[in-house]
Specification:
mainly alpha; binds zinc ion
Length: 85
């Protein structure tokens, strides 16, 4: 049986791994990426936010002030596909 909280925790864990960078054997993201994942998931799952979601997401992940790096653009794209199928 899975509760909404469990689901959210699982989504967060997956998102944080995407942000931190997946590699074999890695099961946990670092604290900083966990925090970013929290903000990113909240942003990505807002139904009212459709335009400019990708750049904003990339910005949250990169922690840049409006100029996310290519790496984080890619992570944001992946994350968006995972969160909004
Ligand atoms: Zn990390
Ligand atoms: Zn970046």
């Amino acid at each position: 049986m899975s509760t909404a909280t469990d689901t959210r925790a699982a989504v967060l864990r997956e998102a944080s791994l995407t942000i931190c960078g997946r590699r074999e054997g890695k099961t946990k993201a670092c604290t900083s990426c966990l925090r970013k994942a929290d903000a990113a998931v909240r942003m990505a799952t807002r139904p009212d936010l459709n335009t400019a979601l990708l750049p904003r997401l990339a910005d949250v992940i990169c922690g840049s002030a409006g100029h996310p790096c290519p790496d984080c653009w890619e992570k944001a794209t992946t994350l968006l596909l995972e969160l909004r199928p």
